[in-house]
Design a protein that fits this description.
Elements: H1 8-14, E1 21-24, E2 28-32, E3 40-46, H2 59-75, E4 83-86, E5 102-106
Bound molecules: adenosine monophosphate and zinc ion.
């Protein structure tokens, strides 16, 4: 979907708002979360705008987005130690930025998967 004028992550993906880049290709941008909850906390966004994981994202786009996770984990050096992937969706999950983003979290031991893992 097209660039949305009032969307923070559209602006970051377009380079209009600065971010610390971890990885970029023609479809996605990965950048450091400005308020990290773990030693490694990187966000991955598609350059196209989708509100959330429930926004009818085409398979090719979704596949590319999630195949980027392992690349980011390797670039951040947590591919062997392990990492957690979170996609907050909607109000109950406290989604605050309504442009789908994948959190890649790691770099220290986490608990056993409580929903409050962040
Ligand atoms: P969520 O609660 O899943 O919507 O997560 C939004 C995430 O975006 C939070 O972890 C914020 O710290 C992060 N965030 C907000 N603004 C920025 C920004 N300008 N650059 C990088 N990360 C940001
Ligand atoms: Zn957007």
């Amino acid at each position: 979907m097209a660039f949305q004028q009032d969307c923070l992550f559209c602006k970051i993906a377009a380079g209009d708002i600065p971010s610390t880049k971890v990885y970029e290709d023609e479809r996605v941008l990965a950048f450091e979360d400005v308020n990290p909850q773990m030693p490694v906390h990187t966000l991955i966004v598609p350059k196209s705008h989708y509100d959330s994981i429930a926004d009818g994202i085409p398979d090719e786009e979704m596949g590319h987005l999630f195949n980027t996770v392992a690349k980011v984990a390797a670039l951040k050096g947590i591919d062997r130690s392990g990492f957690r992937v979170i996609v907050n969706t909607g109000d109950d999950a406290c989604q605050t930025v309504h442009h789908i983003h994948v959190h890649v979290l790691g770099g220290e031991q986490m608990n056993d998967g409580s929903p409050k893992a962040r």
